[in-house]
Structures are given as structure tokens and as C-alpha cells.
Amino acid sequence: MDRRRFLQGATIASGVALTVKGFAKGEPPTASGGTVPRVCSTWDFGVAANQAAWKVLAGGGRALDAVEQGARVPEADLRNHSVGRAGYPDRDGKVTLDASIMDEHGNCGAVAAMEHIAHPISVARRVMERTPHVLLVGDGATQFAIEQGFPREELLTPDSDKAWHEWLKTARYKPSANSEVRTYNAGPGGTPGDASNHDTIGMLAIDARGNLSGACTTSGMAWKIHGRVGDSPIIGAGLYVDNEIGGATSTGVGEEVIRNVGSFLVVELMRQGRSPEDACREAVERILRRKPDAKDLQVGFLAMDKKGNVGAWAIQSGFSYAVCDAKKQDTLIPGKSTY
Ligand code: GLY
Asked: What is the pTM of this model?
């Protein structure tokens, strides 16, 4: 098998190399070590998420606040059928959401298969900060969110309801790769029969103090079996942050990421000296070595190291990610763009 056909990767220049001299008025401070605040996130909808996160970082704010604020943008976007409020439902017509968040101290929180709450990333943060637990699921997660003051809402939008009824005509379910560049404004990118619209937003940020945090949020696979949970709310699978080393997050078919504890693996590979891109590539190759058939699926990893360097790798072309710092805002296609 010619893996190069499937594996695409890219990296961006060192955060140190971009260390700021002469930031214009209003631009963010840097720590004495010269850390450049930066945020990155999966897919093209990461651009808008990054802009919200950047407002926090540019004001000298904490990476944790940046990734929460950023992740809330696609969660609220009615055009986005793979994250948050307008996420496509499961096969029973229920919208169930997954999210996780992790800070610079190794604290983490997550919710899984949660219904009726539009911002799972903020509930995940409350789990982290206001309970002794890491993960709340299903009705318990919804109950906790309501106790915390989150509004209970009907999340199935007319568009999602229509797509679900279209899918019900065949009820064919086969997870498949999103191997085309996402056509975000035109819709979810896949036809309502194949779940190829399946994306996630994973975000990683480093703030002016040099602290890292990450967030990951999704509605999971469209038309999934009720109760199915993917990688996004599983710490170590969909998200992992070690403030000494870096952070990683994933998108794509979560089952393959969980089997390989993907984001933890990427961070551990960076600990061994691999670059973010190289670590993501090895994690993808590990998935393919263990299960060659996964070449027909999509999994993408995105990583940021302690210096703010960013890299990504995916099984198939079509994965994109967005990077934002004081100098530039870009959407990158792994293997085709450098920063
Ligand atoms: N990567 C998100 C999921 O599999 O649900």
C-alpha cells in the first residue's frame, strides 16, 4: 500500500521564530520567555472559532478561556451540523452532544451523550471546576447542566429534522470518511445517508504565560446508535494536554482514535522529541498498522507543542485546520500548506 497517498501533513514555523518584536498597540503581551500566544483548531469552521479565542488571548487572557470561548462559536452556529445546537441527531432523532476540556494544570472535564444543552463545552468546564469528577453522561449530564443554570432546549433544528427524515428513507448507516475539503457554507459535506459529514472541532491554545489548554466538542456521527460516544469526550483519545510538552486533539471516526488513545499518544511522542507534525503522523500510521482497513476512514490529529509550533496529519486528504496568532490567520491543508 502506498501510504503517501493517504497521509498528508504540514507544520507551521516555530513560535520562537515568530517571537514578537514591535507588537502594535493593542496586540498581546508575551511572557518573558517570548511565548507567542496562538490558537489552532480543526477544519475550516476553526477560523471563526479562532477569532473568538483570539480576543481572549490578545487581551492577555488564559488559554482555557480562549478555547472555551472559541468552541462555543461552532456550537452555536446553525450551519454546522456536526457540532452543538444544530448537530445532526442519532438514528432515533435525538441530538446528543459530547465535549471535553483540559487546562494547564492537568484538570479536565467532559460530558457525553448529553441532550438538550446547546453548549456542552461550558458544561464540561463546570464538571472540571465544580465537581470531583471528570465525565458526566446522558441524563446525569443534562441534570447537572440544568442545576448549573444552563437552559434546557430542543436542539433538533428544522434542517436537522429534515435531514434525519431523509436518512430514515433508507436508514443506511456506514461511517465513512470525509475525504473532500469541507464545503461548510453549502452544508455538511456528505449526503444524509452515509454519515460522511462527521467532523469535530478540536482547539488548542497557548497564552502569553506559555500555558496550554484544549477543548473538543461534537455531535458525533450523524444517525449513530443512541448512546454511542466517540473520542471527543474521552480524555486521552479526543483531547490531551500536558503543559510541559504540548497538546493534541483529533477529528474523524472516534472509534479508531479511542482504540489507539490517539491524543495521549501524540503528546507522548512529542515528549520523546517528535515535532507536532511527526507525532500526528506516527499516530495515524499506528492506526493504519493495527487496522489497514482504516485507510478508507478519516482520522486527523492536530498538535501544538510547548513553543506553540503546530502540526497535523490525517489518513486522507481533505482535512484542514486553522491557525491564528498576532501576525496571521490561516486555514491550512496538511501536506499542502506551510505557515
Ligand atoms: N470524532 C468525533 C466522534 O467520533 O464522535
From this structure: 0.86
